[in-house]
Known about the structure:
Layout: H1 19-32, H2 37-52, H3 56-61, H4 69-83, H5 88-92, E1 94-97, E2 100-103, H6 115-124, E3 134-138, H7 144-152, E4 157-162, H8 165-177, E5 184-188, E6 199-204, H9 219-222, H10 238-250, E7 251-260, H11 266-274, E8 279-285, E9 291-297
Parallel strand pairs: 3-4, 3-6, 4-5, 6-7
Antiparallel strand pairs: 1-2, 7-9, 8-9
Helix pairs in contact: 1-2, 1-4, 2-4, 6-7
Amino acid sequence: xxxxxxxxxxxxxxxxxxxxxxxxxxxxxxxxxxxxxxxxxxxxxxxxxxxxxxxxxxxxxxxxxxxxxxxxxxxxxxxxxxxxxxxxxxxxxxxxxxxxxxxxxxxxxxxxxxxxxxxxxxxxxxxxxxxxxxxxxxxxxxxxxxxxxxxxxxxxxxxxxxxxxxxxxxxxxxxxxxxxxxxxxxxxxxxxxxxxxxxxxxxxxxxxxxxxxxxxxxxxxxxxxxxxxxxxxxxxxxxxxxxxxxxxxxxxxxxxxxxxxxxxxxxxxxxxxxxxxxxxxxxxxxxxxxxxxxxxxxxxxxx
Length: 303
Ligand SMILES: C[S@@+](CC[C@H](N)C(=O)[O-])C[C@H]1O[C@@H](n2cnc3c(N)ncnc32)[C@H](O)[C@@H]1O
């Protein structure tokens, strides 16, 4: 039986605590429950701001303001959830991705900062951002990648595919939230199976965790992200094999593909793409210095 963490904020000379005291108490409580100390501080601050409806500036200007009773109750509930290792983005139901504020849904992968590397690497290879480009996002999840690309490419349109019903609903909600709903369609299905069109750009962040490593993931991932979004099979490369097999059929001549990869998978994924006749354009590194995105191009038609 798992006991949920218990927590109640206390004031120094009796309730209520100030905002600064509340942050310190929540951070200490989170650290006691295994959240890394630096992260615990940031998380406590974010949870307090959400509980009290404060901007960063509000908090910086008046850290000594006492918490109201309802703010204190909300913060205590948030702290208990975070101590049970639920990510802040899931507690608050939203996360910043690229320049966007996305909704984070249960049963859908919480988009990661690493995936912004894929957006950046893709945009860097587009010569004309005003062109009417077609984009296919395979395994769209929350729709983070497609939303970010459409937000930067004003005349592009896209198709999002995901096997998960919850992911399709999340993509739909996020496209609407970002004002991009009229430039994208959503298909529930297996990779490119249902598609007959060709695309200028294909992007994907497929599941790539080795099946044997799933049990070792941090609780924030293991307990809260769906297995369908994580499990890449015995060697982590199953989904890349499936996707690569469809690329010749789905990529327009000269089209671009960008795939997010696990930190040690770039060479293997590049080999899968080369085997399909694609030319590797580059390998981009994430903020931590890991090889994170493989980009490649289909051959152009000879004139
Ligand atoms: C790692 S998540 C990526 C989600 C999102 N693109 C992102 O970067 O945050 C992988 C996604 O692939 C989807 N998926 C898994 N197997 C699939 C399949 N056979 N066909 C289509 N989508 C699949 C999962 O449901 C999940 O949403």
